[in-house]
Amino acid sequence: MKWTTLILIFTWITSFSQNSEFDSIYNKITRNLVSTRPVTALVTTDYLYEISGNQIEQAKALMLKASILRQNGLTSEAIKVIEQADGLFSLSENYIYIARFNGLLSTLYRENGITSSGKRALQKAIEASKKIKSKNDALRFQGNLQQELAYYAMETGDHVHAIIYLKQGIEFFNKLNKNYDPNFHLATTHELLGKNYLLLKKPDSAFIYFDLALQNLQNSQNPKSPLKGFIYNGLGATYQYQDDFENAHIYYLKGLDVAETSNFYNLKVEVYKALMDYYRATNEDDNFILFSEKREKLINIARQTQKNIANKLIERLQEKENSIKFKNSSALFFGASLLGIIFVLGVYYYRSKLGISNFQGISVNNTPRNVETLTKIVEEKNYMSQETEKHILNKLKEFEDSNYFLDKNMSFSTLVGFINSNSKYLRQVLKNNKNTDYNHYINELRINYVVNKLKTNPDYLNYKISYLAEECGFSSHSKFSASFKNVTQLSPSEFIINLRDKATNINSDLT
């Protein structure tokens, strides 16, 4: 997890306006419960969502919930929550929140190794940021999104493009009003530039940007941020690269002091590792062993703590889901019972008007066929409004155009969050409007995607079936092949052979 991203998340979610009760509970969660009682904090975010007076407060509650899940290693669950939050604003023109949610989604996907989905979310965030009416909000988001682009480049070792993105970000931050703390944003960017130049083995440039980062941080609204420790650590690494071990040690110790004072986990891990490398290079075996053991102990404790908390959070999420299912089933049972009573009373009234007195002889088997049909239609319709149906169909069209279905972690609940509706309505629309269910719907979209690639891109004809399966989100070769044949009536191999034969025949006709 990138420390700058974590800091920005809490900066974003504390920038909303609140009502008094909401504000009081929210502050209690962020200031006390998040770090000391994360399970209680998670439970309280659900209550916070329930008392939200508007969409913005709902979004704030969901972002806080996602942050708690992410902080404790439950990235997949955090993604689902943010997708739900994004759905709240999908039909609005509140581009600040659309940019915010998709920027965070991009980070979560990237950290979870789902690069393709992450880049799609990032592109959506970039497009939304261009439509933000507030000049300073737009500049801040566009600068932060350049940092996110830089992280993608850094993860592939492309430090040249990372530097380009970061410098583009500086152009946005330099235009910010001072109330938006441009110096802090510049400090984070300059620190990243220093790291990238050092990785490109350009220590002189690295020194320049690390020094700029220190100056920016000192002039920011948060001069005591743990960022200072990362900057010191970067300066130490740059001195060590030049074999200036004396200055390297000085800055490593400065970084260590910030790490111990702030108790910032990521900084501790980074500084301990730097000191291990330093003491190995200077042949100080005792100190090397000391920091090696400290780092290992720190990581092990964090892993065990995170595992314990994650298990408790998962249990809480499952309890919540089971509770919702129970309520839904109870409501369904009550509704069905009520419908049955109304139906029986209706038949009684109807037959009474016709002068039929043998009501006691009525049986289920004697129900007229047209009444059965009418009842079925009423049950299937389930009183979904035309506006809701139209909204779901529009969102499904957006989903199909986005290629989100290629994500191998795509699930029914994720799609429900995307369309911002409920599972019952989604199933109903898929059945009545597309004559399918969720699994067949997703599989057909994926197969059609591959078929189009095979027809329009000759390179795909040379790819292995396993690659094609992975490309479109299938978990296995066999599932892909079965779905492919179900949609096209041919196996993938047969389909590819047919396309090759057609291409050969066309080429023969042209010669």
UniProtKB/TrEMBL annotation:
The chain crosses the membrane at residues 331-350. Residues 394-498 form the HTH araC/xylS-type domain. InterPro entries: Homeodomain-like_sf, HTH_AraC, TPR-like_helical_dom_sf, TPR_rpt. SMART domains: HTH_ARAC, TPR. Coiled coil: none annotated. Keywords: DNA-binding, Membrane, Transcription, Transcription regulation, Transmembrane, Transmembrane helix. Signal peptide: none annotated. SUPFAM superfamilies: Homeodomain-like, TPR-like. GO terms for molecular function: DNA-binding transcription factor activity; sequence-specific DNA binding. This is HTH araC/xylS-type domain-containing protein. It comes from Arenibacter certesii.
